[in-house]
Amino acid sequence: MVLIAAAVCTKNGKVILSRQFVEMTKARIEGLLAAFPKLMTAGKQHTYVETDSVRYVYQPMEKLYMLLITTKASNILEDLETLRLFSKVIPEYSHSLDEKEIVENAFNLIFAFDEIVALGYRESVNLAQIKTFVEMDSHEEKVYQAVRQTQERDARQKMREKAKELQRQRMEASKRGGPSLGGTGGRSGGFISDGFGSSGVSSSSGASSANIGITSIDVDTKSKAAATKPASRNALKLGGKSKDVDSFVDQLKNEGEKIANLAPAAPAGSSSAAASASAAAKAAIASDIHKESVHLKIEDKLVVRLGRDGGVQQFENSGLLTLRITDEAYGRILLKLSPNHTQGLQLQTHPNVDKELFKSRTTIGLKNLGKPFPLNTDVGVLKWRFVSQDESAVPLTINCWPSDNGEGGCDVNIEYELEAQQLELQDVAIVIPLPMNVQPSVAEYDGTYNYDLRKHVLQWHIPIIDAANKSGSMEFSCSASIPGDFFPLQVSFVSKTPYAGVVAQDVVQVDSEAAVKYSSESILFVEKYEIV
Amino acid sequence: MTSQVPCYTIINSPDLEVTNEMQLKRDLEKGDTNVKIETLKRVIKLLLNGERYPGLIMTIIRFVLPVQNHTIKKLLLIFWEIVPKTSADGKLLQEMILVCDAYRKDLQHPNEFLRGSTLRFLCKLKEPELLEPLMPAIRACLDHRHSYVRRNAVLAIFTIYKNFDWLVPDGPELIASFLDTQQDMSCKRNAFLMLLHADQERALNYLASCIDQVHTFGDILQLVIVELIYKVCHANPAERSRFIRCIYNLLNSSSNAVRYESAGTLITLSLAPTAIKAAASCYIELVVKESDNNVKLIVLDRLVAMKEHEGMEKVMQDLVMDVLRVLAAPDIEVRRKTLALALDLVYSRNIGEMVLVLKKEVSKTHNVEHEDTGKYRQLLVRTLHTCSIKFPDVAANVIPVLVEFLSDTNELAAADVLIFIREAIQKFPALRALIIEHLIEAFPQIKSSKIHRAAVWILGEYVEGSQILEVIAVIQQTLGEVPMVEAEQRRLAGDQTEEQKQQQGSAGGNAAGSAAEGSGSGNASNKVTSDGTYATQSAYSLAPVAKAEKRPPLRQYLMDGDFFIGAALSATLTKLALRYAELETEARAQNRLTTQVMLIMSSILHLGKSGFPSKPITNDDTDRIFVCLRTLSERTPEAISVFTLYCREALGKMLDAQHDEDQRMLKEKQKATAKVQPDDPVLFAQLSNGRDNQLGENVFESSLNQALAGSKNAQLSDVASPNSKLNKVTQLTGFSDPVYAEAYVNVNQYDIVLDVLIVNQTNDTLQNCTLELATLGDLKLVERPHPVVLAPHDFCNIKANVKVSSTENGIIFGNIVYETALNTNVVVLNTIHIDIMDYIIPASCTDTEFRQMWQDFEWENKVTVNTSFTDLHEYLKHLLKSTNMKCLTPEKALSGQCGFMAANMYAKSIFGENALANLSIEKPVDDPDSKVTGHIRIRAKSQGMALSLGDKISSSQKQSVQAA
């Protein structure tokens, strides 16, 4: 079927409006339209006319004709279907069916026409959909606007607080009488000059740039480099790292929205290597998994900070179970999880998931069992979080022991040991910072290592660490260094075994309780793992 | 050329005054959103009307582009669609780079509808420079959450790949992988559509992977699958076998559109009887089930097309009964087509069944009164007629049914029945007795004089033996008592007396009344008729007086003044008497019959002159009745042989001629299909790559091309040799003018392209040399040609498009304006006449169609013949040549020499207008040197057509007169 044009014309054959769906010259289409009234004969019980090159199919509507021009080989049944849709659309956008009204609403009609036919082929749409398309009322746009507004508001808020604090500091400093503000000033000098100077920032552009400034202070010194990039559209996204946006986005994800995750802008400095390495590894793991039409994905991530002399400063494990269904037949399912997960895990289900069912039987199903899960999107159904101060929770301990060798340099012994023996860590990379322009001499090691001259780091790779192969060590020496140089160490790894022990047991249909074939993948990865 | 720019939108706004560019700029810049929307709409309309605002682009980029309003965003897409994006030298405008960035932002806009419509707009963008930076964004849209964005992204990639494949070298691959993961029907369809056109291999792979689930797909996807199968099989017939199963599945799809398409494809895939049967059954099913007349008609057309194929016809013959189910539809057109189709398909084995069905249909029409019933009945009668001529066995069956129609009030059906009976009675002597019997039975019930007249003729011609007396009896019965004048007088008198009894003392009205009064109440009295003759009234007939309406039918016709039936009756009676004389040896019986007959005739004559009927008898009818009387009384052998033999012979000849004509048409048709041009390429089966023409051309593509480029024979002016192409060159200025110009007029279907050559003959540079054109008549200049600069003795070609919308004579005139260093000059051009003959092509139609149109058309132009021709045929030939019309009157009817000639002519314009002409010319036979005189009447639906054609004829006459 190829629809050439859709036109509205008066009973006398005067064309009011015409929209063409294939390329053609103006002279040709005008000729075709001009020929139509001459060919049409009244008093027939059918509404099509054929010439030797085209077919006209029309429908009278009060004082007008809705006219379609199609090729002669076109499928008449389709064309009539389309024609009906067209003639339903017209009264929708034009109050009365006369020439004046049509001209007045010509553009809306054209927009609606465009929705019905694409490149001469009928789209499968109905009137309600066309109305939605033409209205362009987008939920996502609203969300986007909302996010943006929240960000701006937060930014202003923080800016104000910071300004107050600074003022307080300055007051204090002036009280003390000494200009000891150097450190702070140095860290956020840029901010002071434009954010503080004009305290009543209200224009949107000002707010967004202020936003950057604040987050850069807030997060860490490391992201400062990123934040000083020119303010582009992405700047807002960077700002999105602040906590409440994160949770907002998570929320959206849980609701089934797909939020474009702008790739985490690689943080500058030594941490990038580890992070990118882990990202790559993660991708590698994720890529080669066979997916069934019901697919589970368990993502566990670790944030660990250990003191160099032992002691857990921060340990946080958080995870998300997402479900992706690609076959309509399996829309309505129940997901049974194994009940024996790690003690002390805080579990949280998606609002649409039946909480009672989950509590009583550790089974995930929608509150409204009649409704299917959304298709073709990753739906987050369960989140969990585990925080601990207990050293035994740390999966991998690293003991880095630099000792002064008396010649201005250091001998460093590093040793790792797997504590959580159920895990199998892959692609473990331990990145040891080195002082500038010092070549380390490695004496003994397990795995492989390489020295990155440019970034001044020593990267130590161990392809796999598991119960059978749970510890290893490395020894190297560096000239012209002090023990403090070798910190903070960064560690990255991935694992296919989830840390929290949330494992799917079974997936069944809601109605028949028949088991459904499913596939699952689980990833444990490190967001931050460092020894400071 | 600018004329090649595709046109996507036409908006015809009546009152659109051209606004100042400054005003527009100000509104776009300063106005609030609503003002901007209105102004933007205005600008778009102005641009569509051919105005140019090169300065506006920048204003729009600066002040309208950043607005986030949805309506403005969409309007802008239309604006970018139509605004010229290149400068005069074909380079992309600088500004468009800025716009490009806006496109990119819209492609990443959170509003999915905005993304979608931007993507759809990109399908129409033809500038690779603009598209290139957008490619990553477009690709990203493929993964958008919303299917609306995805499906438009696929279309964008499709068109970009089609136009500029280097921008997405991995297009098919990308889309193939996209297709694998999609669930949304529209996305799948669009993706599949792209593969279908870009990479059939992948499309086939995909199809193969899901061929078992095809029947579960949505209808739009199924349609594309059918298209793919058609295309693949078309390009590669060896593959056909793979798909038959799939197509067959689709034939049972739930969507009628898919079934229709599949049936069409199935017959291109296979010519096996089962396949054809399945396809034909599917079509028939569609016709029966779909309530829409359009569908019915078009699908019937497909069936008719299938029938044309010899192999298919055989298979379809078994489906005749199924075809006849379509007759349940109420539309007359549908029924007509169905009957024609069934008639072509029927063969000896199922003719019986078909006749049964038709008889049932006929009886159904008896009690339903609808405006089309009459026509439908006529149609059925004709079909039965043809059936019985084709298969004489059924004629005996058919006749009783048909004869019932004679009493029908509807003249159409009855007339057709008689035509049928006439042919049947002539062709099947065995059935004569039967037919006559039925005819005699039906005779008294006939309600129209025309039908009676024809029936009388048939009876007179074919009655034999003892039936002669029966016929005369029935005629007498329907004529009533003879002599008629007396009967009428009595009746009148009876009426009067009755009235008198009722109203005594009222003054009598007419002469007859007063005469009756004068003669008292006596029954036997002399009466004076209105023309003064005395009429005797018989005293014997005491029959009660009937009211005027109760007269026997034949008498009623005569009383109404229709004496033609009287003449026909006389001829019949004469024939009967003559036949009876041959049979009956006894002179008394012969004479009794003859006198009886002569009494009737003389009584008719008397009645005609008596003044009782509303109109007196005409002289022609009187003459004819006298001839009959004379023949009977004198019995000269010549006259007898005229009545007994030649009449029948003449009918035989006419029927033969008709048959011959039909045969000739049939043969011509066959000849036309079998014709092979001497310079056709010879095909070697061994060398052909298997895709010989057995499938015909790809109908999808060819029909699209045809629709977009006009029909194949549209290039009317190019069909002739280059020599005639030169004839189309019109010189526009003189050779010594500073600017010499000539135009080649190229007439396409709906437009005229003027290819104007302009030569600078001076030693100066001509600045701003502009060709200005204006038109007269139904012509419209599509766009103004651009100004050019001409170096000394340089030349250039300028093209101008003129739109034509009807067949009328048009004139294009114009001038060339140029500037030299000193001043501005104008050269006026010679006018260009557009000849309507370029638009008129001979066509043919049937006699009835011609008459129908002749009745319907409003405009008539009568042209008096004024010519130096002395030969009627020569004149006709000349006329046909000069008007491009076709003579519909058969050659046989025109041949021979007599003093006059009448002919019908017909032609069609390429716009679909009909033109009819009737030629009536004469010339005294005895004077060979006298000129042809007479007139031509032209009729057409529109005034322009009738007038221009008349002008054309007059001017061609003038030329021929001058030439002579």
TrEMBL record, chain A:
The keyword Membrane applies. Residues 148-189 are annotated as: Disordered. Belongs to the adaptor complexes medium subunit family. Delta-COP subfamily. Pfam families: Adap_comp_sub, Clat_adaptor_s. Oligomeric complex that consists of at least the alpha, beta, beta', gamma, delta, epsilon and zeta subunits. Residues 179-189 have a biased composition (Gly residues). This is Coatomer subunit delta. Keywords: Cytoplasm, Cytoplasmic vesicle, ER-Golgi transport, Golgi apparatus, Membrane, Protein transport, Transport. GO terms for cellular component: COPI vesicle coat; Golgi membrane. Residues 291-532 form the MHD domain. The coatomer is a cytosolic protein complex that binds to dilysine motifs and reversibly associates with Golgi non-clathrin-coated vesicles, which further mediate biosynthetic protein transport from the ER, via the Golgi up to the trans Golgi network. Coatomer complex is required for budding from Golgi membranes, and is essential for the retrograde Golgi-to-ER transport of dilysine-tagged proteins. The keyword Transport applies. It is a peripheral membrane protein. It is found in: Cytoplasm; Cytoplasmic vesicle, COPI-coated vesicle membrane; Golgi apparatus membrane.
UniProtKB/TrEMBL annotation, chain B:
Residues 490-501 have a biased composition (Basic and acidic residues). Its main location: cytoplasm. Residues 678-819 form the Coatomer beta subunit C-terminal domain. It comes from the Eukaryota. Residues 824-953 form the Coatomer beta subunit appendage platform domain. Gene3D superfamilies: Leucine-rich Repeat Variant (1.25.10.10). Residues 490-530 are annotated as: Disordered. Coiled coil: none annotated. GO terms for molecular function: structural molecule activity. Residues 18-557 form the Clathrin/coatomer adaptor adaptin-like N-terminal domain. It is found in: Cytoplasm; Golgi apparatus membrane; Cytoplasmic vesicle, COPI-coated vesicle membrane. Residues 512-526 have a biased composition (Low complexity). GO terms for biological process: endoplasmic reticulum to Golgi vesicle-mediated transport; intra-Golgi vesicle-mediated transport; intracellular protein transport. One of its GO terms (cellular component) is COPI vesicle coat. The keyword NADP does not apply. Keywords: Cytoplasm, Cytoplasmic vesicle, ER-Golgi transport, Golgi apparatus, Membrane, Protein transport, Repeat, Transport. It is a peripheral membrane protein. It holds the Pfam family Coatamer_beta_C. PANTHER family: COATOMER SUBUNIT BETA. The coatomer is a cytosolic protein complex that binds to dilysine motifs and reversibly associates with Golgi non-clathrin-coated vesicles, which further mediate biosynthetic protein transport from the ER, via the Golgi up to the trans Golgi network. Coatomer complex is required for budding from Golgi membranes, and is essential for the retrograde Golgi-to-ER transport of dilysine-tagged proteins. Required for limiting lipid storage in lipid droplets. Oligomeric complex that consists of at least the alpha, beta, beta', gamma, delta, epsilon and zeta subunits. This is Coatomer subunit beta.
